[in-house]
Amino acid sequence: VLCLPLLLCGCAQKSAEREFFAMDTVMQLRAYGPAAEDALAQAEAEIYRLEGVLSCRDEQAALARLNETGGGTAGEETAALLQTALTLCEQTGGAYDPALGALSEAWGFSTGAYRVPEPDALAEAMQSSGAGLVQLDGISVTLTNGAQLDLGGIAKGYAADLLRAQLEKEGVTSATLDLGGDVFVMGRKTDGSDWRIAVKDPADTESYLGVVSAADKFIVTSGVYERYFEENGVRYHHILDPKTGCPAESGLVSVTVLCENGAWADALSTACFVLGPDGALALRDDLADQGTNFELILATDDGRVLYTDGLADAFTPNDESGYTYEALA
Which residues on adjacent β-strands are paired with residue 252? Predict the structure, then answer.
């Protein structure tokens, strides 16, 4: 989801890098320092481990088994992540919801069999969707009315959080982790400067909206171009509005969140997309009052790019993109 053409300049230390496919995406990891090679080997192994726990498709995965049986005893890690997801659902007023598996399947986004569901099928999926159908008591999970958990909107951010802790333990202080668009820039480049991350243009993924300078930040984007299909000349994207059960029509085409917590950045990018510009900014203010701060870059369907005041000195617009840019006070 994010371009990284500027990340790796000016780094003279010994480096290691890995590229592999996991969690339905290509992941690219790079770290610097004498322990980099071993640290990234362990990071890749950790990603595969998490995939084996949190996958909805792998019948052997813990999450898939919970969906199959309507709940049961979850591992401590799965239960803790589910609790985080339910908390985020509450904090975002339901704009992010971890129990939309039935809706995702109805549209074919979870299976690849894309289709516009018939009204009856959509209504049935709505009856089996929503965090209100999920009960978590310690590590005991109950899913009612056929509810299906889907933690895809938080799993990669959570994985990035774990990899950050793992790399720190191995003594790595400078790294870039691109988990298929969920990006974490660790520390600064080895020359002491900030990383520079180019945010993709949702209308032309070979171009970019602008460049963000950042250090020790998670940068996560949700956009209409990530997964979509067309039917009868209409494009349907995968970011579903829990209130309608349909692809969100919020006036946005992409949302980029910068935050110090990967799991939160992941979920907030989805929630802000569903909420639209005004709702996203209101959520940012509400969470700031509770001690959670994040910055936003919002691309609208009428050709504007809005970015919050915390990025005034960190975001450089691409003046050749054709968008109109507005810094929000």
Answer: 300
Q: Quote the CA–CA distance of 51 and 46 in Å, as a whole number.
A: 9
In angstroms, the CA 315 to CA 21 distance is 30
pLDDT tens string, the chain, 329 residues long: the values are 344 444 444 445 688 999 999 998 999 999 998 899 999 999 999 999 999 999 988 888 999 999 999 999 999 999 999 999 999 999 999 999 999 999 999 999 988 899 999 999 999 999 999 999 999 999 999 999 999 999 989 999 999 999 999 999 999 999 999 998 899 999 999 899 999 999 999 999 899 999 999 999 999 999 998 889 999 999 999 999 999 999 999 999 999 999 999 999 999 999 999 999 999 999 999 999 999 999 999 999 999 999 999 999 999 999 999 999 999 97
E strand segments, the chain:
2-3, 15-22, 25-32, 71-73, 134-137, 140-143, 175-179, 182-186, 195-201, 204-214, 217-223, 228-231, 234-237, 252-259, 295-300, 304-307, 315-317, 324-327
Q: What is the pTM of this model?
A: 0.93
